[in-house]
Design a protein that fits this description.
The chain has 5 helices and 8 strands, in the order H-E-H-E-E-H-E-H-E-E-E-H-E. By secondary structure, it is an alpha/beta fold. It has a single domain, classed as YbaK/aminoacyl-tRNA synthetase-associated domain (YbaK protein, Alpha-Beta Complex). The protein is globular. It starts with a helix and ends in a 9-residue tail after the last strand.
């Protein structure tokens, strides 16, 4: 499995532009929101979901969206979506909880994980993602992300992912 420095070396070798910044480890979006980064870009929530048939989805959405799993299952043409375990995250993508991002697909040589990006992010030009560890972030343009995905043989499905209704 590839690690953070393997990923950064890959980006350099492939001439995929990015900016990297080290920071304290973060485990969730709340921790991430407290980080003072010099990097520009949309902070994204990354979730590994699974369905009852054993399909896996890496879902990228806005930092503040609480995903409606029942409605998302309809969009993904799947049934009974649930969050994958930390063990499954390690087995499929070779990363620990808190480090999930599209970069983890570098470790998905069997193409077992489908990448789905919330179309609410389509207007963003720059994204912030963890590079396989949660103690640093990478700023990457949408075009460079697409280039990265093409070079590793993955594609992204940009779909409308519904959020849960806010509680009143």
């Amino acid at each position: 499995m590839f690690g953070k420095y393997d990923l950064l070396d890959f980006l350099e070798r492939e001439a995929i532009p990015y900016i990297h910044e080290e920071h304290d480890p973060v485990l969730n979006m709340s921790d991430s929101g407290r980080l003072a980064l010099s990097l520009e870009g949309a902070r994204c929530k990354n979730l590994l979901l699974q369905d009852k048939k054993g399909n896996h989805f890496l879902v990228v959405t806005t930092a503040t969206k609480s995903l409606d799993l029942a409605a998302a299952s309809i969009v993904l043409e799947s049934k009974r979506l649930s969050f994958a375990s930390a063990d499954k995250l390690w087995d499929l993508l070779g990363i620990r909880a808190g480090a999930l991002s599209p970069f983890a697909l570098l470790n998905d040589s069997g193409k077992k994980v489908r990448l789905v990006i919330d179309d609410e992010l389509s207007g963003q030009q720059i994204f912030l993602f963890h590079p396989l560890e949660n103690n640093s972030s990478v700023s990457i343009t949408q075009a460079a992300l697409e280039d990265f995905l093409a070079r590793i043989g993955h594609s992204a499905d940009w779909l409308p992912l519904p959020g849960r209704a806010a509680l009143q």
